[in-house]
């Protein structure tokens, strides 16, 4: 694979903010990821049959607890709260 990827354009399309350090790292990593995808696409799956027995494996919620049964206990255990909500540190910045 000799094609040059425009990581800045990809990040813009994905609406991601990417630092110059991340750009440098991604320029090295993305070609090997794409090569791995190409390798997977060449795998012969002609002898593999689709499993028709797939089903939802989540259990039914047959015995739900009473509404707000644990709310006070959970809020009391939280390190910080705002009213009836747990307060957490903002991890995503929003640019306008």
Automatic annotation (TrEMBL):
This is Aspartyl/glutamyl-tRNA(Asn/Gln) amidotransferase subunit C. GO terms for biological process: regulation of translational fidelity. Gene3D superfamilies: Glu-tRNAGln amidotransferase C subunit, N-terminal domain. Coiled coil: none annotated. It holds the Pfam family GatC. It comes from the Bacteria. InterPro entries: Asp/Glu-ADT_sf_sub_c (IPR036113), GatC (IPR003837). It comes from Candidatus Kaiserbacteria bacterium GW2011_GWA2_52_12.
């Amino acid at each position: 694979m000799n094609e040059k990827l425009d990581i800045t354009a990809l990040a813009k399309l994905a609406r991601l903010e990417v630092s110059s350090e991340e750009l440098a790292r991604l320029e090295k990593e993305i070609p090997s990821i794409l090569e791995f995808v190409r390798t997977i696409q060449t795998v012969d799956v002609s002898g593999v049959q689709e499993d028709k027995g797939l089903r939802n494996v989540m259990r039914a919620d047959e015995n739900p607890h009473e509404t707000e049964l644990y709310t006070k206990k959970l809020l009391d255990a939280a390190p910080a709260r705002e009213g009836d909500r747990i307060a957490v540190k903002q991890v995503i910045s929003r640019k306008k």
